[in-house]
Design goal:
The chain is of the alpha+beta class. The chain has helices at 2-9, 105-118, and strands spanning 23-30, 36-42, 47-50, 62-70, 79-86, 92-98, 100-103.
Length: 121
């Protein structure tokens, strides 16, 4: 059971999620129930190209990520909305979340370890 939880949540796999430059990982905590969720975004699929109104060029001026996230809880169906802006070098410029808050990878892993300890064997 723990294996499937980790597989589906994107945590604890064989390879380090930071190894692939085309993947972005974010960790969030629900503002209602406190559940932590790992969110993966793919550079070529999830990011939207943004263009300047008066740019006069076909090149994007940056990228945006819009994701709606919901945990796996049976009792909380709070949706969290993530919006992150990047420059043309894919460096994060700003981030915003509704319905929750961003947490660090360490906080996410600590909460996953606590949940594993609470799970009946």
């Amino acid at each position: 059971m723990k294996f499937f939880k980790r597989l589906l949540s994107g945590a604890g796999g064989e390879s380090d999620p930071g190894d692939d430059p085309n993947l972005f990982w974010y960790y969030v905590r629900c503002g209602r129930c406190g559940e932590t969720v790992a969110v993966m975004a793919r550079r070529g699929y999830d990011l939207v190209e943004e263009y300047e109104e008066s740019g006069g060029t076909d090149a994007p001026s940056g990228y945006s990520l819009y994701k709606d996230v919901m945990g796996r809880s049976d009792t909380c169906f709070q949706q969290m909305r993530i919006e992150i802006r990047f420059n043309t070098s894919y460096e994060e410029q700003s981030r915003h979340i509704e319905g929750g808050r961003f947490i660090t990878e360490e906080e996410f892993r600590a909460s996953a370890n606590e949940a594993d300890q609470d799970e009946p064997k």
